[in-house]
Structure formats: C-alpha cells, structure tokens
Specification:
14 helices; 2 strands; globular
C-alpha cells in the first residue's frame, strides 16, 4: 500500500503543477480544438497528464525500491524503460500534434518488443489446444505478443473520450491485476499495479467530474502499455493463471477497439484509422444523457457519461478477478460481455434505448449525423 500512497501523492502534486502553470505554455500543452469529431469539452484544457503519471511512477519506483523496499527496483525501472517508446510518441503528439497514427502504433510495438527481451514478457500460451503448440515457435509467440500489447496500448487511448472514463476503468483493471498478483505472490506485478492505481487516482481528482487536465496520448499509452505488459507477465510467470484472464479483465477497451475496426472497415468500408464520432461512449453522451448545449450543462453531461461505461467494464472485471483460474467462467463472461455490448450499441443506434438506462435529464431528439472532419489525435 506504500506504493499506492507514494504514487497518489506524487501524481497529485505533479498534476497540480501542470494545471497551475499550464496556461503559460498553452500553445504546447492546451487542447484548443473544441470542434473535432470526438471533442467533448467546452474550453481549452492541458492534455499532458501522462507526464504526471510517468513522474509519479519514476518517483515511486525509485523511493520504493531504494528506501522503503516496496518494489523490486531493477525490474520496475526496466518496465519504465520498456514503456518509454510508447509514452514518448504520445507526449510528442500531445505537444506538437504532428505524430501520425502509424508512428505511434509502431512505437507501441517497439515498446512491446523491448518488453519481450528485457522482461521476458512473451505470450507462450492461450490455453487452446490447437494454438498453444504453434506458440512454442518463438517468432510466432513474439509476434503475437507485440500485436497484443500494442493493440491494448492503443485501446486505452480509444476509450479516453470523457472525463474519468479511461482513468477509472484503468484503476479497476489495475485493481484486479494487483489482487491476482497478490494471490500468486508476484511482487513486481502487484507493486506496479498499486503504483499505477495511486498515480491515476492522483490525476483523476483533477479530471473528474470537471476536467482541469486530460491524460493525453502519452498518459493513455503509458497506462495501456503497463496494463498489457503486466497481464503478459502474469500469464508468462504463473501457469495457474488462465490465459483467458487478460482477455476478460480488459475486454471493454479491447472489444471497443475490435468493434470499431469492424464498424469502420467492414460495415462502412472506411480506413481503420478513419475518424468517427460513434463510439459507444459518444453515443451514450449524445443520445442517453443528452440535454442542453450550455457549456456548464455540457460538462455535467460529460461527467454523467462515464459511469455507464464503468458499470459495463465491470461485467468483465469482477468475474475475471474472482475466477482468474477458471477457463469456463472466463469464456462465459466474455460471451456475456460481447452480447451486452452489442445489444446496448444496437439499441442506442436504433433509438430503442431502454427507459431505465436513460438519465432523468436525458432526451433523444434527433439522429446523430455522420461526422467526417478532423479527428482528435488521442482517439486514433
């Protein structure tokens, strides 16, 4: 718990500094684009919250490893080194708005590859009899690991659409990871998970319900990579953890990404990276909690959107945490989540949202038009 406290205090203080002095460097740090297809804020806000998370992790791992014996110093710092390419590409995009989607994806893949060699983080099994023998071939296992880690890294960025959404979902996932790591006695994974819970918590105070700062691409990539790498390490180090656990505990961001690819490429025939404003969280904002256009009302609607997705994510997180060793329960949970997600998405798109889901101030008045103008880079 010491790492959680150190992470929280470090992140809170660093975020405070960014918020306090962000206006002095607004040309770099502030998100001035208020009309992008996935923009849901009403005034410029710093989008470099990832810097606070990285600083908090560095401080916590250093003090925890050298002074308080709260984490294995060497492995913790190696994890930060592995995360550096993904984090750096995101922060540079946050500051310059000039890093392409492809470049950021390649950076995430590079981070995953570094993790393979520095931390031995390789997916060697998926607990499927026909596939596991194939993964005994090292290049195939490494390739799958790189794709999976890079995909989940980007997935957290995709769900980072509303105040507190990605932050709280990530805290819930890290909470599950920390619990499972405690159950199997993995000190590295547990200490890192606690550190990230604290760091994200210190940031979230400034991000929800009203946002004084955003995670930005750097923060989302750092969180996503850390989640992915810890999940890979758990399965790689502990044979008693079902390989389906990582899939189910992170199924909300993962399935949101896969569904978005399907919707863009297969249904609409558009490039996978093409912008759109019809993610599930955006539809909930526009059609379930829709009410008024005043900036103050818009902020309240923004904050009311995230709890819908927090609850949805727990459909996977809670069973995964309790039955991390049971493949049958995990498989059933995955199916239940997919059915629930598709049902909810379809109901909202067809204006058939159940009344019990609509907030007392929500109102559905008109279809949401197809939007094709420039997309916010941090949701790419």
């Amino acid at each position: 718990m010491l790492n959680l406290a150190l992470g929280f205090i470090s992140s809170f203080c660093m975020t405070l500094l960014i918020v306090r002095f962000g206006g002095r460097y607004g040309a770099l740090s502030l998100d001035h684009d208020l009309k992008g297809v996935q923009k849901n804020h009403s005034y410029p806000v710093p989008r470099i919250g990832g810097i606070a998370l990285m600083v908090a992790a560095c401080v916590t791992f250093t003090l925890g490893g050298t002074v308080f014996d709260g984490n294995p110093l060497g492995e913790s710092m190696l994890l930060l080194l592995c995360a550096a390419p993904a984090f750096a590409s995101g922060v540079i995009e946050d500051l310059t708005k000039r890093v392409s989607v492809r470049a950021r994806l390649l950076s995430a893949m590079l981070a995953a590859l570094v993790g393979v060699f520095l931390l031995n983080g390789v997916i060697g099994r998926v607990d499927l009899p026909l596939i596991d023998p194939i993964l005994s071939v090292a290049p195939i296992a490494i390739g799958l690991t790189v794709l999976a880690v890079a995909g989940l890294t980007n997935a957290v960025n995709i769900i980072d659409g509303f105040n507190g959404l990605a932050a709280v979902v990530s805290i819930l996932i890290f909470g599950s990871i920390g619990y499972v790591a405690h159950e199997v006695g993995d000190w590295l994974v547990m200490s890192v998970a606690l550190t990230m819970i604290g760091a994200i918590g210190g940031f979230a105070i400034w991000n929800y319900p009203a946002a004084s700062i955003f995670l930005g691409d750097g923060g989302a990539y750092f969180i996503g990579f850390t989640i992915a790498e810890l999940l890979v390490l758990l399965v790689a180090r502990h044979p008693n953890i079902c390989a389906w656990y990582p899939i189910v505990v992170a199924i909300y961001p993962a399935f949101e990404t896969l569904f978005s690819i399907y919707r863009r490429r297969i249904v609409r025939g558009r490039p996978v990276g093409a912008p759109d404003g019809i993610h599930l969280h955006t539809l909930i904002f526009k059609r379930v909690v829709r009410k008024g256009t005043d900036p103050r009302q818009r902020q309240r609607r923004n904050a009311r959107t995230s709890p819908y997705l927090w609850v949805l994510s727990m459909i996977g997180i809670v069973p995964a945490s309790l039955f991390w060793h049971n493949p049958v329960v995990l498989a059933v949970t995955a199916v239940v989540f997919v059915v629930a997600y598709v049902w909810l998405y379809t109901a909202i798109v067809r204006f058939r949202t159940p009344r019990w889901l609509v907030s007392s101030q929500g109102i559905v008045t008109a279809p949401v038009p197809e939007q094709t103008h420039h997309k916010q880079s941090e949701r790419s």
